[in-house]
Amino acid sequence: MSQYSAAVALVNRLKFKHLALLVALDDTRNLHQAAEAVNVAQPSASRMLGDIEEAFGFLLFERNARGMTPTPLGVVTLAYARRALAELTRFAEDLEVKRRGGHGQLTVGAIMGAAPDLLAMSVATLKTESPLLNVRILGETSDQVVQLLHRREIDLALGRLTNPLQHNDFSFEPLARETLLLVVRAVHPLARRARITLRELVDWPWVAQPVTSPARVLFEEELARAGLATPVNLTECASIFATLQLLENYDAVAMLPESVVRDHLRGGLLVALPLEIGKSLAGFGILTRKEEPLAEPALRFIELLRGFSRNLGRDTALDTTVDSSHPTDTLGTPAAIS
Asked: What are the coiled-coil residue ranges (predicted)?
């Protein structure tokens, strides 16, 4: 059979129900749970998997006592199945929105540091211009939004590349830098300290992003430069909202974007510690899949992001020239650098 004939035969045999089963198996690594997820009986799911593996001509999973583990070729196949299913789902949702008289949809992944300023202003303007456009926002950290972009679950992302090879798959257009602050609750014993060092802080409880996020990588690099180990009392949390709730309820320290904690600082719920950190964190920007055209709502959204980014840049430049004789941190408090 020629290579073309084999490809046609594979396409003719595969169904989207098969792809849904593969994604469910990838999520659960358990045939019974995957069958429940796609609403079929386990024997039917077992036959479906057998049909899929016969169509491909190789095993997708190794079966063992602990469950199911994807084979090397299975990993590649599962990645395709997830992307194809996500694309079909988004197409169906977009079609349904238009059928009901809407103007399509835009799905964006965004880090939380971009949300209070660039994202919020751009979405508000876009919705004012196109009230019937369905806008969906997903993700919180760069590793999350890059994964969503790779799986085709979003149209574009606001974030950072998270490894050196991702430039092969994604285009990156820088937009802005993030000011990171070390924050504690207002009643924390360190909240009134005029000066503090990173060495003193590692003995306190911490709430930090997962090790796959750029902010956490930067935090670990800062610790390494200071000759310090990762805090022993550390809670990993990918949710910014949950991190803020934890900070308000016990004496933990966290490194968060200024834009995210701004209102909490102004309201007196949190206090920024006088220690500069995170200067080497790369700026965030627009991430898109290479060689893939964007729909009109996505193009307009990018245009708005660029415009608001330029405006914020001018405002920042103006703020820093008002009184350059007294360097301050974002909150107007002299920054003590250790």
From this structure: none
Domain final residue, candidates 272, 298, 326: 272
**C-alpha distances in Å from residue 8, one per residue of 3, 5, 215, 290:** 9, 5, 45, 27
Enumerate residues 6+ apart whose C-beta is below 8 A from 28: 34, 37
Helix count and strand count (H, E) for the chain: 12, 12
Which residues have a Cβ under 8 Å from the Cβ of 269 and sit 6 or more positions away? 185, 186, 248
**Domain CATH code at residue 305:** 3.40.190.10
Q: Where are the beta strands (DSSP E) in the chain?
A: 61-64, 67-70, 105-110, 134-138, 156-159, 170-176, 180-185, 206-208, 234-236, 253-257, 270-272, 284-289
DSSP 193: -
Count of C-beta atoms within a 10 Å radius of residue 122: 25
Residue 64: the pLDDT is 81
Residue 264 lies in a domain: yes
> Comparing 65-74, 161-170, 195-204, 319-328, which segment has the lowest mean pLDDT?
319-328
Q: In which domain, by residue range, is 19 found?
A: 3-84
Domain CATH for 241 = 3.40.190.290
Q: 3-class secondary structure for 212-254? A: CCHHHHHHHHHHHHCCCCCCCCEEECCCHHHHHHHHHHCCCEE
Query: Would you state the pLDDT for residue 92?
Result: 78
- Give the pair of three-digit tokens for residue 293: 């055209």
Q: Is it the case that residue 325 has pLDDT exceeding 50?
A: no
Which SS3 state, helix, strand or coil, does residue 263 take? helix
pTM (two decimals): 0.64
Q: Are strands 61-64 and 67-70 parallel, antiparallel or unpaired?
A: antiparallel
